[in-house]
């Protein structure tokens, strides 16, 4: 391209400046950076199988969480997801001084959501600049990878120590170091194998160093490795190296962790994953990881005019992607892979809160979430029989087995039955979006049939011919052992109707009892027409939205007058200590009513008080400190997609009705929507 006049040159300069500004603005919406570790809450890097939670302390990992791997929390307790062996703690010595937060400067951490990488950098005594980036590899999902770069500002001697630290609750650990060899290829492997707390699983962790720009299989090209076993719980591998002034030294520490939940021989499998990472060129390995995340981000939400909202929304979506996989048939716990919160169990949080945004933006992941339930259908059928009902009765808290995993003291486990309807609703919505009739025949309808039969057996016929559902805990868990809870009844009605639609879709005649009961289940009202939360409700404070869920997402209440009455009545009754999702529901409803101001107010209220420094990790409530709350992320994403974006799940697929933007936003773009990967732009 050439220009002859100075005017054209000026135009070219302006064009280049505008392109640069646009590029910077786009990158701004992808990264979160901090120079402060005060009141620190880290952001996990995860790949749907393992979660790696960084620390504010340099060269440390707070914890590692293993998805769907459970042991009992205590001999008489319920199951709890495993906190894995920690393979992310390293020591770095420069000129014989061990580095820590007290003797370094210019500490900085950056989360790159686009590439799912977490980078820490710092300066040591003006003689070395150190940076390392953590990946939970999406392409090798049982492994992590920490990529190091040390720039010598003067001649320095370094010593690096990699560790496998086994939590003390593990039994009989065996820690070893071996150098495996095949022809001329040598493969040094640090490894620890142990039993989980009460012996349910064997866990194997392997690790090694990788040196870039040399042949990793050639032993004579590597620094000499030293194995040190402090104890069976503390297994170490180290090397030393001289770095000359101006040299940039690169290496990596990689590890894999496997258990008998997923492998017959987790010890050997963990070795193979490490060997794969060791002998795959660094660029190829990381490009595969980044490429898979690029595919995930084809389903994205782009907000113009409000950078903070953009970052908040993208962080929420990042977590849902990080906590799930399309090839796993696993679900997502309320805290995802960030902690052992709620024991890592699966609740309605998935089906009602996290699943809808993922169903819109990534049907592969959505299929895994529903398949998690159908894989446990037989267990749910046994539970129904054991409680005197027909069909299938899903647990309030589920683990790998599909049996009830709620602590027995919690009444939710015995009485919060709307979960069974929530599962059924999610199944029909999957078919509505994908139109996958083969899946509907093999998985969808068999489950919908059983949950419909459950609700018929669960309902009690009254003298006037109506039906009640008695003795439940509703979505508002402050009220227990109540009759005719609005959301429980509403979700049962919806589920029964969906089962009939599913039967007809595959050419079957639905059970006439499904429609009879659905038409006659009671929804109680106050004298002025406001919907009553349950038969005896008298205006008490509520934990979270219940009645209002009948307007969204159930669409049982559709007349604007009643919707507004219910909104104005129940919003003031929300407890401050309640979870974040209630405000999200109200926000969606207000947006659909065309009230952008109230929708935006509640959108912000649904998560801003819950953000924790320095990155904005979400706690469950404004008064709690238990991030990251993936359920809240699902709720805020629903406000954007189904509220401001105007998207609706219908029997005709995903359609748009009356989108509306808050005044702070110039444009909203939702990409990768549905199987056709449509883009919706709202200006």
Automatic annotation (TrEMBL):
Query: What's a GO biological-process term for it?
Result: carbohydrate metabolic process
- Kindly indicate where the leader peptide sits in this chain: 1-25
- Domain of life according to the entry: Bacteria
The GO molecular function terms of this record are:
hydrolase activity, hydrolyzing O-glycosyl compounds
InterPro entries under this entry? 6-hairpin_glycosidase_sf, 6hp_glycosidase-like_sf, GH65_N, Glyco_hydro_65_M, Glyco_hydro_65_N
**UniProt keywords, alphabetically:** Hydrolase, Signal
Q: Where is the Glycoside hydrolase family 65 N-terminal domain?
A: 44-244
Q: Which Pfam families match?
A: Glyco_hydro_65m, Glyco_hydro_65N
Residue ranges annotated for the Glycoside hydrolase family 65 central catalytic domain, each copy included: 314-537
Please name the PANTHER family in this protein's record: GLYCOSYL HYDROLASE-RELATED, PROTEIN-GLUCOSYLGALACTOSYLHYDROXYLYSINE GLUCOSIDASE
Name of the protein this chain belongs to:
Trehalose and maltose hydrolase (Possible phosphorylase)
Protein's organism: Aquimarina amphilecti
């Amino acid at each position: 391209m050439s220009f002859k006049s100075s005017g054209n040159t000026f135009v070219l300069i302006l064009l280049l400046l505008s392109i640069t500004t646009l590029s910077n603005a786009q990158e701004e919406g992808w990264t979160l950076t901090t120079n402060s570790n005060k009141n620190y809450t880290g952001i996990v890097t995860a790949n749907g199988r393992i979660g790696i939670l960084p620390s504010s302390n340099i060269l440390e990992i707070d914890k590692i969480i293993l998805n769907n791997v459970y042991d009992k929390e205590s001999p008489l307790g319920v199951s709890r997801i495993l906190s894995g062996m920690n393979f992310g703690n390293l020591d770095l010595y420069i000129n014989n001084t061990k580095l820590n937060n007290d003797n370094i400067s210019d500490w900085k951490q950056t989360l790159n959501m686009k590439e799912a990488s977490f980078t820490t950098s710092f300066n040591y005594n003006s003689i070395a600049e150190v940076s390392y980036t953590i990946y939970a590899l999406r392409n090798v999902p049982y492994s992590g990878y920490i990529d190091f770069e040390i720039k010598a500002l003067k001649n320095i001697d370094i010593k690096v120590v990699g560790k496998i630290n086994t939590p003390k609750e593990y039994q009989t650990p065996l820690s070893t170091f071996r150098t495996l060899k095949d022809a001329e290829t040598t493969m040094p492997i640090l490894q620890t194998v142990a039993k989980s707390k009460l012996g349910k699983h064997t866990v194997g962790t392997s690790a090694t160093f990788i040196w870039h720009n040399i042949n990793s299989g050639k032993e004579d090209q590597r620094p000499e490795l030293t194995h040190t076993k402090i104890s069976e719980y503390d297994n170490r591998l180290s090397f030393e190296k001289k770095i000359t002034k101006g040299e940039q030294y690169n290496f990596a520490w990689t590890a894999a962790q496997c258990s008998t939940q997923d492998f017959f021989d987790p010890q050997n499998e963990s070795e193979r994953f490490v060997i794969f990472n060791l002998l795959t060129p660094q660029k190829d390995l990381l490009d595969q990881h980044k490429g898979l995340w690029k595919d995930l981000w084809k389903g994205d939400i782009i907000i113009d005019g409000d950078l903070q909202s953009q970052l908040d929304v993208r962080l929420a979506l990042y977590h849902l992607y990080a906590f799930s996989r399309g090839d796993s048939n696993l679900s997502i716990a309320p805290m995802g892979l960030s902690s052992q919160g709620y024991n890592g169990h699966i609740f309605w949080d998935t089906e009602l809160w996290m699943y809808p945004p993922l169903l819109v933006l990534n049907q592969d992941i959505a299929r895994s979430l529903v398949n998690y339930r159908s894989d446990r259908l037989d267990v749910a059928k046994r539970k129904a029989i054991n409680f005197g009902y027909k069909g299938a009765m899903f647990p309030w808290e589920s683990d790998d087995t599909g049996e009830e995993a709620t602590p027995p003291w919690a009444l939710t486990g015995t009485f919060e039955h709307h979960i069974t309807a929530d599962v059924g609703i999610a199944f029909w919505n999957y078919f509505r979006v994908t139109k996958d009739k083969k899946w509907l025949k093999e998985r969808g309808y068999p489950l919908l049939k059983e949950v419909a039969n459950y609700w018929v057996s669960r309902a009690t016929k009254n003298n006037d011919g109506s039906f009640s559902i008695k003795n439940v805990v509703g979505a508002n868990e402050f009220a227990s052992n109540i009759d005719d809870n609005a959301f429980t009844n509403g979700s049962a009605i919806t589920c029964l109707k969906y089962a009939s639609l599913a039967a007809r879709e595959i050419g079957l005649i639905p059970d006439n009892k499904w429609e009879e009961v659905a038409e006659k289940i009671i929804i109680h009202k106050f004298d002025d027409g406001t919907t009553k939360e349950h038969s005896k409700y008298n205006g008490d404070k509520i934990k979270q939205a219940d009645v209002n869920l009948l307007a969204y997402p159930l669409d049982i209440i559709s007349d604007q007058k009643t919707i507004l009455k219910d909104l104005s009545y129940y919003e003031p009754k929300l407890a401050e200590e309640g979870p974040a999702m209630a405000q999200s529901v109200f926000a969606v409803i207000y947006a659909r009513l065309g009230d952008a101001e109230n929708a935006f107010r509640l959108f912000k209220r649904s998560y801003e008080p819950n953000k924790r420094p320095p990155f904005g990790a979400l706690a469950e409530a404004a008064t709690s400190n238990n991030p990251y709350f993936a359920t809240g992320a699902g709720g805020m994403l629903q406000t954007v997609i189904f509220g401001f974006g105007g998207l609706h799940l219908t029997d005709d697929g995903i359609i748009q009705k009356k989108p509306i933007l808050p005044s702070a936003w110039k444009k909203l773009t939702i990409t990768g929507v549905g199987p056709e990967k449509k883009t919706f732009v709202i200006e």
